[in-house]
Automatic annotation (TrEMBL):
<feature type="transmembrane region" description="Helical">
    <location>
        <begin position="517"/>
        <end position="536"/>
    </location>
</feature>
<keyword id="KW-1133">Transmembrane helix</keyword>
<protein>
    <submittedName>
        <fullName>Cation-chloride cotransporter 1</fullName>
    </submittedName>
</protein>
<feature type="transmembrane region" description="Helical">
    <location>
        <begin position="490"/>
        <end position="511"/>
    </location>
</feature>
<feature type="domain" description="Amino acid permease/ SLC12A">
    <location>
        <begin position="136"/>
        <end position="605"/>
    </location>
</feature>
<keyword id="KW-0633">Potassium transport</keyword>
<dbReference type="InterPro" id="IPR004842">
    <property type="entry name" value="SLC12A_fam"/>
</dbReference>
<dbReference type="GO" id="GO:0015379">
    <property type="term" value="F:potassium:chloride symporter activity"/>
</dbReference>
<keyword id="KW-0769">Symport</keyword>
<feature type="domain" description="SLC12A transporter C-terminal">
    <location>
        <begin position="778"/>
        <end position="976"/>
    </location>
</feature>
<keyword id="KW-0406">Ion transport</keyword>
<dbReference type="Pfam" id="PF00324">
    <property type="entry name" value="AA_permease"/>
</dbReference>
<dbReference type="GO" id="GO:0016020">
    <property type="term" value="C:membrane"/>
</dbReference>
<feature type="transmembrane region" description="Helical">
    <location>
        <begin position="167"/>
        <end position="189"/>
    </location>
</feature>
<feature type="transmembrane region" description="Helical">
    <location>
        <begin position="271"/>
        <end position="290"/>
    </location>
</feature>
<dbReference type="InterPro" id="IPR018491">
    <property type="entry name" value="SLC12_C"/>
</dbReference>
<feature type="transmembrane region" description="Helical">
    <location>
        <begin position="360"/>
        <end position="380"/>
    </location>
</feature>
Length: 977
């Protein structure tokens, strides 16, 4: 143990030194709380703070309960520790810091379980060998990048494209991978990185759907590229040892050259058989785990470096027609002859043939060569096996990218100046021919290089698939889950199966473009992730790699897309369609991953910018949207686990056109905030779940308040931001107040309406909510509007919104206008028709005349409302008499609802007559209407809330489904386009 961690035991306390590392302190029942702090002497480097810590019985419990225990300080006196103000649960310690990073922490054992309570250093679980920058990133990237394309295709590419376009090709592809490496370095150094490599980065930046879709495509690319490397190794082996072939070789007669020579190429069946055998052998090596791969990797890499050295030495010592016909040595004339491109049709073996079926151009060569620069993700694919991902991935990846790009650029010049174009075309193993001293070195180098790259692919691809499965996004991938530190054996078998399937194809030139598309798709995802994170610049975006900019990431993503379309637009469409199909499948079947992806940050920034652009000015009627505040607090009881009346959510959906708009579902929890805060969080979560279940777009809010009135007053003042504040308050009509004799409801109900009027909020009160239809109950009939007062067009707009729903689309609208004099009827009807026509609204207009509101109702007509009217009169008289008796008894003025009132009995009678007339009219014309909308009368200023409830009860009497609407001081419809 280091000196920093030295623990000095004492009989009654433990003393440990504070240094770079800390050990957790376990409480002892028999110890006393002792906290000793001595200041560190600035002049002495050896002076250390010493802390003696013990714990009194139940100390932590007391700290949580808010009590402040006494501590013994250095001088033995008793005084209150200043640290107690923060509570022991909040003190910064190593366990808390580890929990912030997501590391699993083993809970310290309790001494009450019979243990001695000694302080032991907790060692993390051994998750296997961890690799450094060289063996973990640089070597895998180098082996993947420097592979089969360089040895058996690169000289042919130089001959086909010429030196000039070959340099452009290498620069173009190298720039794409370099910019991707920069983006990868930035994201990889922005926090801890677990297994999965690019999938982990893309998924956490762009969300689980994008991450899984691109991650699975990248997995397929890795698996397919493994077959590419295996085929290259087998083809090289069969060319070096023709006698090893089991079937007859294919002989191709070369055309278009000075001396026609027969060119042999291995049989397809030989490639398939040997390829499957090699894949199985590599699979066994991968099964050995990281430890075996770490041992085998140098054995593959060292001969490759020797082979490269022999190639460059052979180029330097080559002379005219030495070591074979067609070599000129390094010649300026040859350099000039090979500068320009010479694209020719070829056969399947790549041999120029005027009758060949394969046409080559720069775009096709991009598709053939690009796999030679892929492999930059080989290190990040093994991120779970790295000691320090934030250091190793940037340094190793960029070093491998720059090294191989420089090697390719140099090789273009050397190959272009070394041999004639015919030799570049026909000698597929020119690197072996020119090697010094023996071509066999190149055959060994090619085979080991390609096998090493295949080994890295078969190592990285299963770990990538296991990382996707471990995130538990797609249940179908659960078979590939592995425990931390274990080898992904099932994923390895699946990868090997895909690899062998592609080996059966047996054609490098067909496999290469497919692999390229998957790689480019992943590279584009990495660049877009870095672009989004860098552009948004969230506070959490603090990468250690500083040499990046969002413009470079955008350029890298653009290059990836351009290269995809340059290679093949059909392959591009297929790969994008596959990624989109996986994205759609993940969206439907996948589980949500709360990763805080960049899209959430983008939505946040967009919302803020949109909110600022809206400002706080008045919204124009053309841009007006209903933002209903659904008051979920029921006038009565709801079933258990139902936080909101089900039909309120249905009605909220009816207020949106094609689902556009936002609803705020608010409820009030009675009580003290400090005591009910946790209950409010639970209730808010339940309400959110419920409105999601009801498929109603909206947010849930729970307010804790002493009572409903104060809670609603707080809601109506503070809810919303800027112009996104709710503009309509929707609530249920309290039909149960008289039936259950809830005498506190009138004052609360009237107070809510008055609060809405003061806050300038529109009000919609739903009567008959239990009978409100859902989306599957189609309605027929009419929607009747009793348009009594000007409300800015809100009632008209609500009726139009109802018609947009399937349940009401078969209904027709009728507008009833109330005219006091007969002479006004025709003129009013014409004006309303013209107004509705200009508003583009289809409705029938009906004018109802009432000569005088003061005329008492005719009881001889046996109207159903007359009996209710008489009962309301009796109740009002009884309530007024009780108020007067109380006032006389107490010697005060008339009081109701805690405030003085002024009651004019004639005015009360007039209000009752008014509501009676209106109710009679509604029953006469709209008894069979689907929905009736009527204006909400404001509560009279000095009348008791009880009287207002009597007016409202009389208004809604015998009307089964009624919307009582009050607009606000703004127009919500406009005549203009």
């Amino acid at each position: 143990m280091d000196n920093d961690e030295e623990i000095e035991a004492a009989p009654n306390h433990r003393e440990f030194r504070i240094g770079r590392k800390y050990s957790p302190v376990v409480a002892q029942d028999s110890d006393r709380a002792v906290v000793e702090m001595s200041s560190l002497d600035p002049g002495s480097s050896s002076s250390l703070n010493k802390v003696k810590v013990g714990m009194q019985p139940n100390l932590i419990t007391n700290a949580r309960e808010g009590s402040l225990p006494t501590h013994v300080v250095a001088n033995g006196g008793h005084e209150e520790s200043k640290l107690e103000l923060f509570g022991f649960d909040s003190l910064v310690n190593i366990l808390g810091l580890k929990s912030m990073t997501g590391e699993p922490i083993q809970a310290p054992s309790s001494p009450r379980e019979g243990e001695d309570g000694s302080i032991l250093e907790q060692h993390p679980k051994n998750t296997g060998i961890k690799l450094g920058t060289m063996m973990g990133v640089f070597v895998p990237c180098l082996q993947n990048i420097l592979g089969i394309i360089y040895y058996i295709r690169f000289s042919w590419i130089v001959g086909m494209a010429g030196i000039g376009e070959s340099l452009l090709l290498v620069t173009f592809c190298g720039l794409c991978t370099f910019l991707t490496s920069v983006s990868l370095s930035a994201i990889a150094t922005n926090g801890a990185m677990k297994g999965g490599g690019p999938y982990y980065l893309i998924g956490r930046a762009l969300g689980p759907e994008v991450g899984v879709s691109i991650g699975l495509c990248f997995f397929l690319g890795n698996a397919v590229s493994g077959s590419l490397y295996v085929l290259g190794a087998v083809e090289t082996f069969l060319n070096a040892v023709p006698s090893a072939g089991l079937f007859r070789e294919t002989i191709t007669k070369v055309n278009g050259t000075a001396v026609a020579e027969p060119i042999t190429s291995p049989s397809l069946h030989d490639l398939q058989i040997y390829g499957i055998i090699v894949t199985i052998i590599l699979c066994f090596i991968v099964f050995g785990g990281v430890k075996m791969i770490n041992r085998v990797a140098p054995a593959f890499l060292v001969p490759v470096l020797f082979s490269l050295a022999s190639i460059f030495v052979g180029i330097l010592v080559a002379k005219k027609d030495h070591p074979a016909t067609g070599f000129t040595g390094l010649s300026i004339k040859t350099f000039r002859d090979n500068w320009s491109p010479e694209y020719q049709p070829t056969n399947n073996a790549g041999i120029p043939d005027p009758d060949g079926k394969i046409d080559w151009n720069f775009n096709a060569l991009v598709g053939l060569f690009f796999p030679a620069v892929t492999g930059i993700m080989a290190g990040s694919n093994r991120s779970a096996s790295l000691k320090d991902t934030q250091r190793s991935i940037p340094i190793g990846t960029l070093a491998a990218t720059l090294t191989t790009t420089g090697l390719y650029m140099l090789s273009v010049f050397l190959f272009g100046a070394l041999a004639t174009r015919e030799k570049l075309f026909t000698d597929r193993l020119l690197t072996a021919t020119v090697a010094w001293p023996l071509p066999a070195l190149i055959y060994v180098g090619i085979i080991l290089s390609t096998l090493g790259a295949a080994l890295q692919s078969l190592t990285g691809a299963p770990r990538l698939l296991a990382a996707i499965a471990n995130d538990d996004i797609l249940p179908v991938l659960n078979y590939f889950k592995v425990a931390e530190g274990d080898e992904p054996h099932i994923a390895t078998l699946f990868t090997a199966f895909i690899c062998m399937g592609c080996v059966v194809i047996g054609n490098l030139d067909l496999i290469s473009p497919t692999t390229t598309m998957f790689y480019l798709l992943c590279y584009a995802g990495v660049n877009l992730s870095c672009f989004l994170l860098d552009l948004l610049d969230a506070p959490s975006w603090r990468p250690r790699w500083k040499f990046h900019h969002w413009s470079l990431s955008l350029l890298g993503a653009s290059l990836c897309i351009v290269i995809m379309f340059l290679i093949s637009w059909s392959f591009t469409v297929v790969s994008l369609a596959l990624a989109s199909l996986i994205y759609y499948y993940v969206s439907l079947k996948g589980k949500a991953g709360d990763w805080g992806d960049g899209f959430k940050s983008a939505y946040f920034q967009l919302a803020l910018r949109s909110l600022r652009s809206l400002g706080a000015s008045q919204v124009h009627p053309k841009n007006w949207y209903p933002i209903p505040l659904i008051f979920c607090r029921p006038w009565g009881k709801l079933p258990e686990n139902v936080p909101c009346h089900p039909k309120l959510a249905d009605f909220a959906n009816c207020m949106k056109k094609k689902g556009r708009g936002m609803s705020i579902f608010a409820s009030i929890l009675d009580g003290d905030y400090h005591e009910c805060a946790e209950d409010a969080k639970i209730a808010c979560k339940q309400l959110s779940t419920y409105i999601e279940y009801k498929r109603c777009e909206g947010v849930a809010e729970i307010i804790v308040a002493p009572n409903m009135s104060e809670g609603f007053r707080g809601i109506v003042q503070t809810m919303g931001l800027g112009n996104l504040k709710p503009n309509i308050v929707v609530m249920r009509y309290p039909e149960i107040w008289r039936r259950e004799n809830l005498i506190e409801i009138p004052a609360t109900f009237v107070g809510i309406i008055n609060d809405c009027i003061v806050a300038n909020k529109a009000v919609v009160i739903v009567k008959g909510l239990d009978e409100w239809p859902n989306e599957y109950q189609r309605q027929y009939g009419t929607i009747d509007l009793y348009w009594i007062v000007r409300d800015g067009g809100l009632m008209l707009l609500l009726s139009q919104l109802l018609l947009t729903k399937e349940s009401f689309e078969s209904c027709k609208i009728r507008v009833f206008c109330i005219a006091e004099e007969d002479s006004d009827a025709e003129e009013l009807k014409a004006d309303v028709k013209k107004f509705l026509y200009d508003l583009r609204m289809q409705a029938e207009v009906i004018v109802v005349s009432m000569k005088s509101w003061d005329t008492q109702p005719d009881a001889s007509k046996q109207d159903e409302s007359v009996e209710a009217f008489a009962a309301a009169q009796r109740r009002n008289a009884s309530y007024l008499k009780d108020m007067k008796d109380k006032a006389e008894k107490n010697g005060t003025e008339l009081m109701a609802d805690g405030k003085p009132v002024v009651v004019h009995e004639q005015q009360v009678e007039k209000f009752l007559y008014t509501t009676l007339k209106l109710n009679s009219t509604i029953l006469r014309y709209s008894r069979m209407a689907t929905v009736v909308l009527v204006s909400l009368p404001p509560p009279p200023v000095n009348h008791p809330a009880y009287f207002y409830m009597e007016y409202m009860d009389l208004l809604v009497e015998n009307v089964p489904r009624l919307l009582i609407v009050r607009g606000y001081r703004r127009d919500v419809v406009t005549l203009f386009t």
